[in-house]
Write a structure and sequence with these properties.
The protein is of the alpha+beta class and about 110 residues long. The chain is built from two helices and four strands, in the order αβββαβ. It has one domain. A four-stranded antiparallel beta sheet has the order 1-2-3-4. A hairpin with a 5-residue loop joins β2 and β3. The longest helix has about 30 residues. The chain is elongated and about 60 Å long.
Length: about 110
């Protein structure tokens, strides 16, 4: 019985790590496609209020990133909040990543 519980916990942790890695890959690809270079990319502890609610996607499966980026086309730096649905939840509706530009932009 203990072995079954340990295997279930191990599978859950592996899925959590895979989901975060897949979300990070999606964010890095989105930043490159939109001509940004990430100086810092992290998952914040609290990210309430950065995005509006969505009706067709579960907020529980979304991974939120805070990125300090450098804009290659216009120059300057700023903060971008990205919300990503890795896996099937991101593929059902279409777009993988949604961005919310907040924070201060400097040159």
């Amino acid at each position: 019985m203990g072995l079954v519980v340990a295997v279930i916990i191990l599978v859950a942790l592996a899925h959590y790590a895979w989901q975060r890695r897949a979300a990070r890959d999606i964010v890095e690809r989105w930043l490159m496609e939109n001509r940004f270079r990430a100086r810092e990319l992290r998952i914040p502890w609290f990210s309430v209020g950065n995005f509006p609610m969505t009706f067709f996607r579960s907020q529980k499966s979304a991974v939120v990133f805070r990125a300090v980026v450098e804009d290659r086309s216009l120059g300057g730096t700023g903060t971008v909040w990205l919300r990503v649905w890795p896996g099937l939840a991101g593929k059902l509706v279409g777009k993988d990543a949604r961005a919310s530009r907040r924070g201060r932009t400097t040159t």
